[in-house]
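Hi R.,

Here are the chain sequences for the assembly we discussed:
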Amino acid sequence: MKRAAFLRAVIVAAALALPAVAFAQFGHPMKGQWSGQWGPANSPNRLLLDLHWDGKDITGTINPGPEAATIKSVTFDYTDPSAWVVKMTAEGKDSSGKPVQISVDGKLENIGAYTKLFHGTWTQSGKKGDFTVTRN
Amino acid sequence: MTKSLRSALLGAVAVAVFSSSAWVLGAQQGGAAGAAGEAQGGGRGRGRQSGPVTPAPRLPDGTVNFGRVPGEKGVWAVPYITNMAMRVVGKDGQVLPEIQQAQAAARAGGGGARGGGGGGGRGGSKSEPWMPWMPWSAAVYDYNSKNESKYDPEGYCLPPGGPRMMATPYQMEIIQQPEHKRIFMIFEGATHIWREIYMDGRKFPEGEELNPTYLGYSVGRWENPDTLVVENKGFNENSWLDYFGHPHTDKMEVVERWTRPNKQTLHYEATVTDTGAYTRPFTMAWDIPWREGGELPEYICQENNRYLNRLEDDLGQPIFGPRPQPGQKPPTGTR
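And here is the predicted structure of the full complex:
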């Protein structure tokens, strides 16, 4: 039994390790799917960012699904090439159909690695909190 | 330690990452993989040709034979071109005057052409003003320059994409099969890969049918009996254009022109159009020498790749280590 449990653990660990290799991406560093959360640690809000690069702009969606918000603008400051300053705005609707405004002020770091990191301050409908997402 | 020596050593480490076993093999074969020293010259290559220059061989249909003729051995000794920006040519096929001036200035200053060529390379995007940067591609290149290509995908034993196949310093064979309307390229290096070029006049797959890959989808045609034109689309974003870290996107298209002006030389030209990373197309060119008598040895990049075991990312995490968990503060060391 112990051996079977050990094997299961090895398989799970291997499966978890695979995506890091499988999704290497060296194009525009913001492109791709990002996951994480924003808000207080004891009541976090899950985040999924699905971002695209069309050659001119970053486009995409925050939390695809019924409460999705569409990216409206993204700007970059490349003064420090290893820590880009990124500002993002988005608009969506909540479950009751009310408009939701999102403003993101963050830093993009670990740019060359698989586990790119985007973190900073997330403001949504007047609430503000820290956010952290890593590239999937 | 001087900067140039440090740069040379880093270049050597980069090659060693994907060639630890091949180095030994190469040394046994007359320095076939002893590229690091030459690499810093921006890609003069190895496998110097010797003997008289002779006409390029031909296939029965009159087109150039890019491979061996029956009864002989030989391979193409692909040069190590660390910085392709230093190989950008104008419409006349000559290296841009500003690159020549930068190289001459570097030589006059005693710097030679180290680090991929004087005037370019580790100076980042500003040292290569002829490159049609987009702001983000310049920033990524500056980042790769600053960390001295720490994240070079070839260091992970991932294959090169596009023209880098013709600039990764191992041997290569071209096998033409006109009866099957296809051409194969077999590379010792770059993770022991092969490439197929379709010569049957087909059109490129469209939309999602064009599956993005490291080497892209290649369709070739003879412009004339001397010149093979190969169009390439469908690249993924898992590679760099060169060791110095010029980025590209999946919008990249490459048109290659191959000629064999004589038996000893393959002249290679590649025009890169990438509307995701560069504001206009640019063309690079270089020669690849024929190595008479050469054969392809086995080389497995992945074997004993200790570089990956010790590589840490900018946050001090193992490169393949655990990811930060949701809600976790960025590790110490984050700016």
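Residues 3-309 of chain B form one domain. The radius of gyration of chain B is 20 Å.

Let me know if anything looks off.

Best,
T.
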